[in-house]
Amino acid sequence: MSENGRGQWQTRAGFIAAAAGSAIGLGNIWRFPFITGRYGGGAFVLVYILLLIFIGYPVMNSELLLGRKTQKNPVGAYKALAPGSPWIIVGFMGVLAGFVILSYYSVVAGWSLSYIFKSGAYMAAGSDAANIFVSSISSTFGGIFWHTLFMLLCIGIVYGGVENGIERWSKILMPVLLVLLLVLIVRSVTLPGAGEGLSFYLKPDFSAFSAEGFLAALGQVFFTLSLGMGCMITYGSYLKKDEDLPLDAKYVVSFDTIIALLAGFVIFPAVFAFGLEPAAGPGLTFITLPAVFSQMGAAGHIFGTIFFILLTVAALTSAISLLEVVAAYFIDEIKWNRKKATIGMGIAIWILGIFPSLGYSTLSNVKLIKGFDILDSFDFFANNILLPLGGMLIAIFIGWFWGTDKALEEANRGASTKLGASYSFLIKYVIPIAVFVVFLNSVGILG
Description:
Blueprint: H1 12-23, H2 26-38, H3 42-70, H4 74-81, H5 88-115, H6 119-123, H7 129-137, H8 140-159, H9 161-189, H10 194-202, H11 211-224, H12 231-236, H13 245-273, H14 283-294, H15 299-332, H16 338-357, H17 374-402, H18 404-411, H19 421-442
Helix pairs in contact: 1-9, 1-13, 1-15, 2-11, 2-13, 2-15, 3-4, 3-11, 3-13, 3-19, 4-5, 5-8, 5-15, 5-16, 5-17, 7-14, 8-9, 8-15, 8-16, 9-13, 9-15, 10-13, 11-19, 14-15, 15-16, 17-19
């Protein structure tokens, strides 16, 4: 517990596990492989890594230093550094993003949770993986049940607090995640014909790459690191004042990248080994991969179950950070205790999540933003509007309002490798422009 009575990370390993867990989620294991397949394999991976270094890492440092400097949630951070100014709106955007994202994230995570028990269905003779998935998500009771179960898991961990809840469980869940990934990689790369998938994944072919692919890579960097949604400001607020921020940010970005790259080693060898389509889109996880497992014989039961446990663990480590953002606001600003904030906001998010859960059954005729169904509309609002704007405004706030000199002073306190002029240049000029381009593209103004 810190001097101001807030929770505090007890160990560096605990913080890194929690922050990496926030970054590592469905975006790494579900989204990264299918957009890599869509935009040319190795070429996309190379661009993605470069953008992680030059955009993801500086923004990660920026959010962590705002949190540590103020010891506040996203709203409180802006209130402390820019009192009486409109910048507080950026903090509210982060809290709102966390609220909205978790409402539908829990629904998709619930699908993954249900698939832990579905290996018997897609392994059955003559089964159709696509039909199984459609029947699964279109079940009114089933969708709400798995969404509820996942939210209960999430609430239970955040209820335990920073030290005994988030830190404790992150140190357990992250090693489990890595072990499960490695088990699946060994199986996948040893399949007959896996070499073609490895070649697709590792050899850059820029003839298949495009400006759209670049924008997709930049968007993936931004979203996968949990930037712009208040998570890293909140987690940074629980850091001790002498914590080495640049080093911690390197660890978090590195672990997030490693997990995403490892997920590719699971998926592409298996997809090519069985002659499936690497650019299958979002269905790659819930339709294509069960088809792969069904062709593995008896071992498919085991590896299919392991994979969806892995996906659920990854989703849970991200979900607890989203709930913590919302709970921290009510604890700090509204003065609720942790029990009331966690349970109250957990229930509110669960209620909102019922709507996207029913979007494939009783509410399937409801279309919202740009004709999207409810879940895709929630996703578009959060990931294509709130997050890019939030990330861009954070860079502008530090670069042009609060000042990079103050940011560098805060970030470099206790740092073994200090940030310098390159950080200032990226935050002031490169990142606002790059993220603004992504935002224009995402809302359809470009291209």
